[in-house]
Amino acid sequence: MLRIPCPHCGVRDEFEFRYRGDASVRRPAADAGIDAFHAYVYERTNPAGWHLEWWQHVSGCRRLLKVARHTLSHEIHAVGLPDDEIVLPEASA
Ligand SMILES: [Zn+2]
C-alpha cells in the first residue's frame, strides 16, 4: 500500500487518492497539428523507474497533486502542487 504525504492533509493511505494520469506530458500548442495531439492523448511510456504522476486526494482535500513515484519499488520521492517543479532522482532502478 502506498502512503502518500499530502501537502495539505499529511500522510494518508493510497485508498484516499485516485490516480489521474501521467504528469510528464505537456499539452501541445493549439497549432501543433493532429500528430502532436494524437501523441498527447494516446501515447504513453511505461517506465520501469521514476515517474511523475497526477494523484487526486478524493477523500481528503480533493486537491490535485504531482507525485514522483518509483514504479517498481513504489517509493515516493516528492509530492507537490500542480505548478511545482519536481526533479526526478537519477535512474537507479
Ligand atoms: Zn489532501
Summary of the model, kept short:
By secondary structure, the protein is mainly β.
What does this structure look like?
This protein is mainly beta and 93 residues long. It has a single domain (3-80), classed as Folate-binding superfamily (Folate-binding fold). 10% of the residues lie in helices and 34% in strands. The chain contains one helix and six strands. Strands 3-4-5-6 form a four-stranded antiparallel sheet, with no helix packed on it. Strands 1-2 form a two-stranded antiparallel sheet. Strand 1 (3-6) and strand 2 form a beta hairpin. It is globular, with a radius of gyration of 14 Å. The mean pLDDT is 94. Bound molecules: zinc ion. Residues 6, 8-9, 57, 60-61, 63 line the site of zinc ion. It comes from Labrys miyagiensis.
Question: Cα-atom Rg, whole angstroms?
Answer: 14 Å
> Architecture, according to CATH?
2-Layer Sandwich
Count of discrete alpha- or pi-helical segments spanning 4 or more residues: 1
Task: Please report the first level of CATH classification, the CATH class.
Answer: Alpha Beta
Strand content: 25-35%
Protein topology:
Layout (H helix, E strand, L loop, with lengths): L2 E4 L3 E4 L4 E5 L11 H9 L7 E7 L7 E7 L5 E5 L13
Antiparallel strand pairs: 1-2, 3-4, 4-5, 5-6
The structure holds zinc ion (ZN).
Organism: Labrys miyagiensis
Protein name: Sarcosine oxidase subunit delta
Pfam family, one: SoxD
